[in-house]
Amino acid sequence: MNELPRLGQVQVKPAAHRSRRNHSDGTRVDPLFPARRIHVTGKVVEGVNGLAGQGPPQRRLVPTIANRAEKSPADRGGIDPCQRPDPGYGVYSKWAYRAGFGKHIAPLDHPVNERGGFDFIAHFHGAELARLEYVRGDAPIVFLAVNGNGGGYPAMTGRHALSFLISDIEKAMVRDSPTGEAHAEHVALAAWSGGYAAIGDVLRQSEDWEKIDAIILLDGLHAPRDVPPGTPYLPHFAKFARRAAAGEAFFFMSYSSIPTDHHASTTETVRLLLRELGQHPVRVEGDGPAGMELKEALSVGGLHARGYRGGGKLDHCAHLMLYPEVAAALYRHWHPGAE
After folding, report:
1. Is 75 helix (H, G, I), strand (E, B) or coil?
2. I need a surface site. Which of 105, 175, 188, 270 has the fewest CB within 10 A?
């Protein structure tokens, strides 16, 4: 196994189609992923400490046909994002089933700090695929894969589900604590694909939803298309997004260009959610893991959206490969100045 990069220092090779072009104007460091550079091709809101567009990137919200092409493994340097080799566990422990809500991995080095505190991510959907990518990074954050049932997460429904989840992982981490006690200092809920529905249940039903410090959605936010005019769009996700935009939380959304028939695609849904907040992504050119091509981006406070080209299964799986960089960005958000 290759040596893991330092936290947030992901090695990035420039895409061929951009390396031939001189982007002295409009090229900047990605405010979320500092190891990557992006070229801004749309109109930005001046004076924003981040990256925001002046308006919708296009009149039609659905992904354009030009953006829907699926990249083959050959186009990705021989990488099949849906069938990646198992890299082992890296700087993390192996799966442990000590938590009643699911199984988790933890940093091998001081998983619980001297105060008895720890950070954790509760992930929904595609646990094994997510683990294969998460361990390629080195963020010192406990990773819990929550058990599902037929595609749903009944344990996450109800007013107290979130508190039960937090209490459960705290009990599991006690044996790693130097104080004999363990408490979650930061809590993140994350999902890939359809797992977003569990997070929606928590935001909608839990009286403790403000305990959530971060949400990560990897190509997984969908919604109906037929929302009546004047009706708030995804109000429960919107209330968290407002907190993030104000710098009070961290909210990352990635989205592909996969078209959908009976519900809004991730591209449509994220664009509409941002519009509900009076925000718009800006057109950009940039890179991602395994040949992912960035098409638009937004970073305002702790609110981040990254839209990518690609309209097939491999493109959907590729979003899990963002995990190491997103986890590193989340850790920097929680611990400014940490190495």
Report:
1. helix
2. 175
Query: What is the pTM (predicted TM-score) of this model?
Result: 0.92
Task: Check if the beta carbon of residue 146 is closer than 8 Å to that of residue 165.
Answer: yes
- For tokens 């958000």, name the residue: 333
Per-residue pLDDT tens over the stretch 267-283? 999 999 999 999 999 99
Average confidence score pLDDT of the chain: 90
Per the document, the length of the chain is 339
User: What is the sign of the dihedral through the CA atoms of 97, 101, 107 and 110?
Assistant: negative
Which string of b and e fits 183-222 if b means at least 16 CB within 10 Å? bbbbbbbbbbbebbbbbbbbbebbebbeebbbbbbbbbbb
What's residue 225's pLDDT? 83
Burial of 232 (0-12, 13-18, 19+ CB in 10 A): exposed
> What is the residue whose two structure tokens read 């040949």?
291
Q: Which of 188, 184, 180, 186 is nearest to 169 (CA)?
A: 184
Query: From 3.40.50, 1.10.3470, 3.40.109, 3.30.70, which CATH number describes the 16-333 domain?
Result: 3.40.50
Write b or e for each residue in 261-295: b if 16 or more Cβ atoms lie within 10 A of its Cβ, otherwise e.
eeebbbbbbbbbbbebbebbbbbbbbbbbbbbbbb
What span, in angstroms and rounded, lies between the C-alpha atoms of 62 and 42?
18
Q: Which residues of 14-31 are buried (b: 16+ CB within 10 A; e: fewer)?
A: ebeebeeeeeeeebeebb
**Cα 315 from Cα 55, distance rounded (Å):** 26
Beta strands (DSSP E) in 55-125 are 102-105, 117-124
Per-residue pLDDT at 10 exceeds 80: no
The band of 23, judged by pLDDT with boundaries at 50, 70 and 90, is very low
pLDDT of 339 reads 62
Domain boundary assignment for the chain: 16-333
Tokens read off for 237: 């996700």
